[in-house]
Specification:
homodimer; mainly beta; 13-stranded antiparallel sheet; 4 helices
Amino acid sequence: MGFAFDDATTVVAVGDNQYSATVHAGWDIGGNANGGYVLALVGAAMRQAAQGRDPVTITAHYLAPLTAGLVEITTETIKLGKRFTTVTANMRQGERDAVRAIGAFGECAMSSDGLSHTAGEPPALPDFAESARWMAVGADFQPAFVERVDVRLHPEDSGFGRGQPSGTAVMRGWFSFPDGRSMDALAMLLAADSFPPAIFNLTGTPDRVPTIELTVHVRAQPTPGPLRCVFTSRFVQGGMLEEDGEMWDSRGVLVCQSRQLRLVPRT
Amino acid sequence: MGFAFDDATTVVAVGDNQYSATVHAGWDIGGNANGGYVLALVGAAMRQAAQGRDPVTITAHYLAPLTAGLVEITTETIKLGKRFTTVTANMRQGERDAVRAIGAFGECAMSSDGLSHTAGEPPALPDFAESARWMAVGADFQPAFVERVDVRLHPEDSGFGRGQPSGTAVMRGWFSFPDGRSMDALAMLLAADSFPPAIFNLTGTPDRVPTIELTVHVRAQPTPGPLRCVFTSRFVQGGMLEEDGEMWDSRGVLVCQSRQLRLVPRT
């Protein structure tokens, strides 16, 4: 009776620094598990290793695609500090290393003390209730994964699926779960790679855009409700591109930043 | 007779996946080795482990300060791929893990093939030759490290050292070496943390702004000549801030992006 995301990120300790988990079917794009889901799954194991502390900054390198089925995660707690516990992880499927990660886990709760400064604002979006889910906007590109998240794209950014890319490598929209599961640090690891690549609004073609590396900074605990998200690629060159993400909660607080390095689709 | 930076980043293989190096004096701020120098040093060992391939994306977690003296670096080659070699590293000094890093090493040479897109431009700076080095702008804050790099701040961003912060968390300037050592991927790892923190232009006080995590993406091989750099902090909250960097070469090509998560100075 749990929420789907919690079921899909369940991690069981099977020994010292050893965890077992199952990559769930349906969280994939063409058979390969979504990168945000994979980050949340490895992050769930690392969070256990960090005795329940939440990820503050986590980096994953994607070495091999993961398919539905068992994975084993080995963690190492490098440093147990007052403020952060630093943990590495190796996620294997069969004989193959699939993901390596490193992260610092601790308090990301927003403190009202100290210096505060914001140069930026959440993306303007149509009301959540009046927005269409990604799966319903007529895109040809509808991986199984889109049923697991409730992503509602800004109408100006969703034309790529109808052969009408906006011409600007930006992807804005709402993120939440279809079953009402609340937002937290793990959910934001998922959200960091849950939108169609911003580059689709240049190419107009939903090709694979493999992730080499993804880093997520959790900047505050989100308040309840869908997140306003924006993903942007500013530099596409030499066969690679970066994609930067920002997530904002219902208070208008920046709760998460992400950056990933991806390979440009071969056209 | 070598360049100072090459001397200071010399790494000697002492066994399988084992390297020895010396944190050189003079590359410090108040006795602690500069974070960019440390990244370049661990990156030099990882590059050897990757058989000379250059860093394309590298992430370091800073666990303990490093002082001048011996360090030992243990590497692990996780994946030897056609395009990238993925390597982890553990840098220890004495009994203590000081830095953990993970990176993908390969070709970052700019290809003229494929999709190319740029939404950004290099920062406008006064001519290099007419700019003053950081050490010469009258700042109270002059760590030993500033003699090792030739950083020339934009005059609008250098007032923090005279009690006149600009009020905008941006730090622009030129980066090169005083002895003419050329720019390359390792030099850009150094440059990613060689400027005064952008936050000094809000606080006006040169306090310590410790780095938790630093990720650098090398986006192209730089052409000869000083780099135009800009560092920006947009979100300061909950005791943390991000600092994003861009470096541009003499062609006007973006050659490097960096992002670090830092602790806000305690005031």
